[in-house]
Amino acid sequence: MMILETERLSLRKLTADDAGFILRLLNEPSFMENIGNKGVRTLEDARNYILNGPVASYERFGFGLFCVEEKTSGAAIGICGLLKRDTLDDVDLGYALLPEFCSKGYAVESAAGVMRFAYHTLGLNRVVAITSPDNQRSIRVLEKIGFRFDKLIRLSADAEEIKLFTCGLNRQD
After folding, report:
1. CA 60 to CA 63: how far, in whole Å?
2. Beta 65-70 vs 92-97: how paired, if at all?
3. Model-level pTM?
4. Is residue 138 part of a domain?
5. Are 110 and 95 in contact (CB under 8 A)?
6. How far is CA 131 from the centre of its chain?
7. CB contact at 8 A, 78 and 25
8. What's the pLDDT at 10?
9. In the chain, is it the N or the C terminus that has fewer CB atoms within a 10 Å radius of its CB?
10. CATH code for the domain in which residue 34 is found
11. What does the alpha-carbon distance between residue 77 and residue 54 come to, in Å, rounded to a whole number?
């Protein structure tokens, strides 16, 4: 199901049929380093990740992580969307791309599209984002679409500090 389109991209809901793509994405070294190890090692793990994560989020909140596809090729190139974590007061923006699609402006384009969706469709007034302090590529994406560094936080008592960015949405977005 199509959620939104940008100039070069289509974003749609993930389904269990995306298990092969999700298995590859979640096991990319850059994903493991910057986002974390999700313990997804098989197609069945990937299907369960999709059903218990994004699909459950669509049903509960009306949003989640979406599959990002190139319009021209139809290729799945990454994920981008909104998450509601128990450890954060606000909805947060998340994204990840396969390495061969990085540095082409796709992260900025998909994230900006999701932010318009957050405001215009969901009626959100504020969205946050988290990133590791040394993930400069992600920080640049966030800053390009209007996020500003707020503070260092921990998602749990034993977790490492991460950067929290905030973005207040307005009618010009």
Report:
1. 8
2. unpaired
3. 0.93
4. no
5. yes
6. 11
7. yes
8. 98
9. N
10. 3.40.630.30
11. 17
Contact criterion met (CB below 8 Å) for 1 and 55: no
| pLDDT on residue 1 | 78
In angstroms, the CA 73 to CA 128 distance is: 31
CA nearest to 142, candidates 106, 93, 100: 93
Q: Give the model confidence (pLDDT) of 16-41 as tens digits.
A: 999 999 999 999 999 999 998 999 99
Residues with pLDDT less than 50, the chain: 171-173
> Tell me, what's the pLDDT at 168?
85
- For residue 72, the enclosing domain spans 2-124
What is residue 73's predicted lDDT score, i.e. its pLDDT?
A: 96
Counted domains in the chain: 1
Q: Confirm whether 25 is domain-assigned.
A: yes
The reply to whether 155 falls in a domain is no
102 domain residue, yes or no: yes
pLDDT of res. 173? 40
Distance (Å) of CA 130 to CA 37, 38, 56, 173: 16, 17, 21, 20
